Amino acid sequence: MEVEKLGDEAVEVLSHYLRVNTTNPPGNEAAGASFLGDVLHDHGLEYRLLEAAPGRSSLLARLRGSGEGKPLIFLNHIDVVPAEAEGWQVAPFSGEVSDGFVWGRGALDMKGMGVMQLMAFIAVAREGLPLRRDLVFLAVADEEAGGYAGAKMLLEKYPEELEADLVINEGGYALTDLVPGKPFFMVACAEKYGLWLRLLQRGQGGHGSMPTGKGALELMVRALARFLERKRPLRINPVMQAFFTRLAEFWEILGPYREDGKLETLMRVIEENHLDAVPALNAVLRDTASLNVLHAGNKINVIPDRAEAFLDCRLLPETEAPEFLDFVREALAGEGLEIDHFQDMERSPSSPWESVAYRTLEETILECYPDAVVSPFMLSGLSDSRFFRARRVPCYGIIPARLRLSDLPRIHGADERISLQDVREGVVFLRALALRFCA
Ligand SMILES: [Zn+2]
Domains of the chain (ranges plus CATH)? Predict the structure, then answer.
């Protein structure tokens, strides 16, 4: 079958694509975009390069439909995060194929998905069926640095080119050990938003031999320690409640909630079993703050009069930023710390999971992966979906790679890899999805 041949080609293409170093910064996505363009060209298909800045290209290819519906966009990003060879079993930009996997930075996040989408796009093109809406393949620059030279810029510059009824992007994977024997397809329908804070503490400088307890660093450390003790309240939002409802079909621990379906029962079960002690669950059940940068002092015998810290705060979509800032101010009050709210990472509405589009996605997953469980989920991080969701375009984030929980650190970590089976089946799945929406 034709599509199987494309699956083999997908493995080959991915192995080469992983050798194109698109580490961001600086990105150099032009090299990745021209690589993808060559593959399209080899299959007789056209594309456009959209440039945000020199070297920062995105690529768009379109199969025209009748216009009955707005397009379906297959969205992926070309750039990857840095990789140090140390700690890897293979060279991170080797694209090595061994032990049933393609290895390399970007295999999971998200060149693997980019290639699956590309080959599915090519499969649909070769079938030549009449389409009722356009199918768009969109590979963008700069996702890993916030999307400002990628998706965000493209939506501002080419809004009519990027009109869509639906976007399929990254955001979730299929976890294999949440429910034994059943890959759990976590479809990202929402994401948290970021709020970045810079804290400045001034204090009394002096000689290290004569401590006063009023040095900037000591004041700041004490204030931050108090702050980090404070937890934001647990909050189960609708998308996470939908996730737990699905999970409750399989997890005995959620039995009481399965029986009565009440939010307060779910809350009690989560609290009693300390499920929020799992960082991945904590991150989707409350607002969080991570203290990631601290600058103070430069000499062992000098008390610094100035200290600066950066807090990476991630807020549930339901949280109002001013209310969160009040919480921070109140928790840090007393020592004259200045709080500078220097950047918001865009808040976006969730995409519906009780819609025809979501159901179609779910049905296609179940058809291609008969053992699967499909559930809506919220991403604790950020993705380019937020720019589309802000324009009310439904976005679903799912990379059809079956992973164990212990594989998750490979994303942005060492030994990133994707199985050959996942790549091949992913092409079949995305082709089927495109045909369901477009044909
Ligand atoms: Zn990514």
Answer: 2-170+399-438 (3.40.630.10)
Instruction: Give the separation between CA 438 and CA 238, rounded to whole angstroms.
Output: 29
Query: Token pair 């495109």 is at which residue?
Result: 434
CA of 43 to the centre of ligand 1 (A): 27
Q: For residue 90, is pLDDT > 70? A: yes
Distance CA 380, CA 234 (A): 14
Q: Are 11 and 420 in contact (CB under 8 A)?
A: yes
380 alpha carbon to ligand 1 midpoint, in Å? 13
CA 50 to chain centre: 23
Hey, what are 187's tokens?
């479809």
Output the CA 385–ligand 1 centroid distance in Å.
11
pLDDT digits 0-9 by tens, 72-89? 999 999 999 999 999 999
Instruction: Give pLDDT tens digits for 250-309.
Output: 999 999 999 999 999 999 999 999 999 999 999 999 999 999 999 999 999 999 999 999
Contacts of 409 (CB under 8 A, 6+ apart): none
Q: Is the pLDDT of residue 1 over 60?
A: no
Using CB atoms within 10 Å of the CB of residue 366, give its burial: 0 to 12 exposed, 13 to 18 middle, 19+ buried: middle
CA of 34 to the centre of ligand 1 (A): 20
Among 136, 131, 116, 110, which Cα is nearest to 45's?
136
What is the DSSP code (8-state) at residue 233?
P
- For the chain, the farthest-separated pair of C-alpha atoms sits apart, in whole angstroms, at 81
Q: Which two tokens stand for residue 252?
A: 């005995």
Please provide the size of the chain in residues. Answer: 439
Contacts of residue 203, Cβ cutoff 8 Å, sequence gap at least 6: 214, 215, 216, 217, 218, 219, 220, 303, 304, 305, 306, 307
How far away, in angstroms, is 381 Cα from ligand 1 center? Answer: 10
What is the 117 CA–ligand 1 centroid distance (Å)?
Answer: 14
Residue with tokens 């937890």, as numbered in its chain: 231
Helix (H) or strand (E) holding 50: strand 48-51
* C-alpha to C-alpha distance for 218 and 170, rounded to whole angstroms: 42
Q: CA-to-CA distance for 20 and 28, rounded, in angstroms?
A: 9
Contact 387, 64 (CB under 8 A): no
The three-class DSSP label of residue 339 is strand
Verify cis geometry, omega within 30 degrees of 0, for the bond prior to 400.
no
CB atoms inside a 10 Å sphere around CB 123: 23
Question: CA 59, CA 133: separation in Å to the nearest integer?
Answer: 19
Distance CA(165)–CA(72), nearest Å, equals 6
Can you give the C-alpha Rg of the chain in angstroms?
Answer: 24
State the distance from the centre of ligand 1 to the C-alpha of 77, rounded, in angstroms: 7
